[in-house]
Amino acid sequence: MANYLLAMATYAGLYALMALGLNVIWGLAGMINLGLAGFFAIGAYTSALLTVHLHWPIAAGCVAAPAVAAAAGAAVALITARLRGDYLAIVTLGFSEVIRLVASNEIALTGGTDGISNIPGPLRGVLDPTQFNLLSLTLVWVVVAAAAFLLARLSASPFGRVLRAIREDETVAAVAGKPVLRLKVQAFMIGAAALGLAGALYAHYNAYVAPDAFQPLITIYIVLALTAGGTGRMAGAVLGAVLVIALTEGTRFLAAALPFLGAVQVAALREGLIGLMLILVLMLRPEGVLRERPRIRAPEAG
Amino acid sequence: MIRVLQLVADGVMAGATLAVPAIAFNTMYAVLRFPNFAISGLATIGAFAGYAANVWGGWPAPLALGAAFVAAALASVACELGALRRLRRSGPLAAAVASVALTILLENVVRFGFGNELRGYDLPVFRDWRLGPLRLNPQEIENAACALVATAALFLFLGFTRTGRMMRAVADNPALAALKGIDAGAVAVLASLLGGGLAGFGGMLIGLDASIDPLTGFRVMLSIFAAAVVGGLGSIPGAVLGAVVVGVGEECSLLLLDPAYRSAVGFLAILLVLSFRPRGLLGERAW
Question: Which residues contact A83 (CB under 8 A, 6 or more apart)?
Fold first, then answer.
């Protein structure tokens, strides 16, 4: 039971990191990304392949993963940034499916649907499982705290201000002389990097990656985390991730409460509930539990 | 050479089938102004409603396609009235995100009722027809014919009826349409009904070719987007052209690529079109 709780708290941290990434893309820059699972997968596979096949140290894998994810994010954003958000929605959703397709079929590289196993984790084997879980939990949440701090600083900086301006009205920002395209691509890259880093941490914690872990449902979890917590605020992303884990794990007990349902029916009920929750949150409380605080200050003298 | 000809023939027939959900996607886009990703869930609903009519009810496939249309149309109107109408007010992106959640919801309604196993329709078995060196499967020809009938019916409706012209007016210029006294809410419901129905119809057509499970609609999602974007997002004739281009492209990719990468062809097509002709082959006008 203790190990289960530790594992769930670790997953909450991974979701929080992904929600933070989405918050830069969506919350600050107002761009959509429905391919979160794809960037998460890129990070996970990058670090897994580098550490398993090329024997890179784990830390190096965790640096390479966000870099590769950010590069993929730059490519996706560059193709669609000039177009309306609808195209970005379509391209990102398609992107994550293509990543899953490649992961399932490039068997020589990714092991196909069997995945990659025996991915090294920090001190795995030296520590007993509970200690390893505790260490992972600490490491993941240290990363989340650092990311939340840095991104909150970023959000309060002139860069964050311009991103919000672009979110509210791109044309006005462009007229004010802001390089809109470059800023949007940068925001998308920062968000993708956070998603890729979450993927790397997941791979090293879980010791195993396979295409099945990168279903579009992951994207729904993260969007739900961010919208429930409150878009635009970094604390909201973290709070939302914890709420989502509480919801997905809480519904596990449905199986016990409804013994007359088959396993597939319970699984369908749980997935369906997540979808329904996201729709309800979007309809009833689009600003989330924590609202974005307006940042209005008196103009400075001079 | 004969292999290429065969692949092109297969591609055109696959494209005719793909055109139905692609038209559905673009019809909804033209009127509702957001990419409705619920399309894949609606296609699955249609495929299973058709299954129920065909296997349980004993209806022949063309009749069962009617059941697929009706069930998916009703589901789509429920999505519109229950959620999407309200969500569009917070912007097209909120509605797009919610529509992904709707697909997950619809898919799981089907999974709850039917489980995950593959199911096949009750179809008469025919031998392939031979046309010179080409082999044509009568079932595929029947599917393509049903797709053509549905496409033609939609074009006639949009082109020659008062209601169809109202829909085009809203797609063209919502503000002007409102000035003329056209009820935008009613047209949105009508577009959801037609789009959802065609998505269900197309979902069953795609299922007739193979077997169905709750992911039937999701698997063709990339091809549907590709057809819609290649032809021009929101353009109804564009969806037909885009579907044929994508269908032929997917079949011909078998010459070069592993069959597993078939659906990646659609994504490649999207990237190419967005890089070189972002408005699609026929532009974004609905008609």
Answer: B274, B278
